[in-house]
Amino acid sequence: MGRLKFAPRENWAALRDALYHLWSDARFAPAQVLHSLDTDAAVCQLLLDVYWTADEVIVRASVPGVKAEDLEITLRGDQLTVSGSYGPSLRNVTYCVYERPTGRFARTLTLDVPVDAQLAEADLREGVLTIVFPKKRATQSQPVVKVPL
Length: 149
Prior knowledge:
The protein is of the alpha+beta class. The chain has a domain at 41-134: Immunoglobulin-like, CATH 2.60.40. It is built from 2 helices and 7 strands; from the N terminus they run H-H-E-E-E-E-E-E-E. It starts with 7 loop residues before the first helix and ends in a 15-residue tail after the last strand.
């Protein structure tokens, strides 16, 4: 058997490439590793778009395969939380590719625009959750008062 020649540059490059491929594989991504260790952890990422018009703040979230009864939308002050759960993964099978999220998810963000939570509406269609918050109307302007000195 021949001796292996140590070539630091080639060996480090191979190690770097192997680690890159390992972390790129969805089965070994950090979130999936953590999920396999703690099944109650909220590790799934929820992808959001948030934008506003002159009258509304709109939040759209991708939640494919999630039913409305598995979602919870909460607004506390200016903190919006969207949480829920994806269906469980299959048991007693060997996955070739494991990319679809499973388990609980939660995402909290700050709405920088004052909204009227009482008039909010939510709709779930084709795996996209849309939440519409009407902006709060500015209160009646206060007259300018000179303060005597």
